[in-house]
From TrEMBL:
Chain sites annotated for binding Mg(2+): D15, T41
Record HAMAP family: GGGP_HepGP_synthase (MF_00112)
EC annotation from Swiss-Prot or TrEMBL: 2.5.1.n9
SUPFAM superfamilies registered for this protein in UniProt: FMN-linked oxidoreductases (SSF51395)
Keywords: Lipid biosynthesis, Lipid metabolism, Magnesium, Metal-binding, Phospholipid biosynthesis, Phospholipid metabolism, Transferase
Residues that hold sn-glycerol 1-phosphate according to the record: K13, Y159, M160, E161, Y162, S163, G164, G189, G209, D210
Cofactor: Mg(2+)
PANTHER family found in the cross-reference section: HEPTAPRENYLGLYCERYL PHOSPHATE SYNTHASE (PTHR40029:SF2), PTHR40029
Listed NCBIfam families: GGGP-family, PRK04169.1-1, PRK04169.1-3
Name of the protein: Heptaprenylglyceryl phosphate synthase
Catalysed reactions, semicolon-separated: sn-glycerol 1-phosphate + all-trans-heptaprenyl diphosphate = 3-heptaprenyl-sn-glycero-1-phosphate + diphosphate
EC category: transferase
Quaternary structure (record): Homodimer.
Length: 230
């Protein structure tokens, strides 16, 4: 595997269903972030994914597709994130969709580019929480999911997904204590430098999403705040 999880401190996540100007996209790509993820929950279409891909490709920043549906999978990205939703109540989101994808695409899959994420969705109001029929885990559950991600599934990433709301730093700290080989990715509700730094104290990687669309200047400042910690 040749991906550079060890060096990914900060990632931006762009939602293909949301508009972004060329100027803002250029600023994101040239910000010093370690990679740009393309991923969303609702209304993700192949056209919109391809549009973002071609515009990001004007820059040298690595580009990742976080797969949300089979219809919008396309070659051309540097990496592919495949979520397995560990706190879903339905096996479909943990295993069955991935199983179907393997059946269909196995021969064209390059495992140097594929990174499987153990996802734990921790905001009950998030669209992804509802869509994937999650149940809300308590802190001990989350810690145990992280432990399973590392020891049972040996996943490269455990993703604490608070999408849309700022998470609990103490729980992020506890989860990090469990993980030695699996990288901890934190995403959700980061609205400023301080929060980006606070989560990066514990997580290996922080992801900034919505802030791109609500306050571009603040979003850009999270990059420096995190990169300066290295
Ligand atoms: C979403 O974890 C990312 O998948 C980032 O969350 O959009 O709340 O920043 P926000």
């Amino acid at each position: 595997m040749n991906y550079s999880l060890d060096n990914w401190n900060h990632l931006f996540k762009l939602d293909p269903a949301k508009e972004i100007s060329d100027e803002d996209l250029d600023a994101i790509c040239e910000s010093g972030t370690d990679a740009v993820i393309v991923g969303g929950t609702d209304d993700v279409t192949l056209d919109d994914v391809l549009d973002l891909l071609s515009r990001i490709r004007r820059h040298t920043v690595p580009c990742i597709l976080e797969i949300s549906n089979m219809e919008s999978i396309t070659p051309g990205f540097d990496y592919y994130f495949i979520p397995m939703v560990m706190n879903s109540t339905e096996k479909e989101w943990m295993m069955d969709i991935q199983h179907q994808a393997i059946k269909e695409y196995r021969d064209s899959m390059n495992w140097d580019e594929i990174i499987v994420e153990g996802y734990c969705i921790l905001n009950e109001e998030a669209k992804a929480f509802k869509q994937t029929k999650c149940s809300m885990p308590d802190d001990d559950d989350v810690v145990a999911y992280a432990y399973m991600a590392e020891h049972i599934f040996q996943l490269p990433i455990f993703y604490m997904e608070y999408s849309g709301t700022y998470g609990h730093t103490e729980l992020v700290r506890q989860v990090k204590e469990q993980l030695h080989n699996t990288k901890l990715v934190y995403g959700g509700g980061i609205e400023n430098n301080f929060q980006a730094r606070e989560m990066k104290e514990h997580a290996d990687t922080v992801v900034v999403g919505d802030l791109i669309y609500t306050d571009m200047n603040k979003a850009l400042k999270t990059v420096k705040a995190v990169q300066e910690m290295q």
